[in-house]
Amino acid sequence: MWDWMRTVVNGLRFEAAPARSVGPVHLAQGGLWSQHTRSGHPLTLTCRAGLLWLTCEGDERDYVLHPGDTLRLKRPGHVVVQALRPSRFCLMERAPAPSPCTPPPPGHGAPVR
What we know:
Strands 1, 2, 3, 4, 5 and 6 form a six-stranded antiparallel β-sheet that branches. The chain has one helix and six strands; from the N terminus they run H-E-E-E-E-E-E. The protein has a domain at 17-94: Jelly Rolls, CATH 2.60.120.10. Helix content is 8%, strand content 49%. Mean pLDDT is 75; it is low at 13-18, 96-104 and 108-113. The protein is mostly beta strands. A hairpin with a 5-residue loop joins strand 3 (43-56) and strand 4.
């Protein structure tokens, strides 16, 4: 009775969710930007122009990013960015991959074409 549903589920491709782009963000010298990152949503920050100082909650190190530098923030927490001179940066956030509610038993059904 549920073979048709197994066939449909077998044909689905569960891939990573697309990255969400935020930016570019422009900051005047001394300007601040902050965001709380969530678990499972890594944030990648790329400096495009200027000079940025960056600190992350739970990380004892601070970072200075020059144009072309990229930093990937994997842990959740509060991120603060300050422009040490007029700056521009871009952000990418990748959401966790969706998962099926109930995976079908192996070997059931044929892929849908």
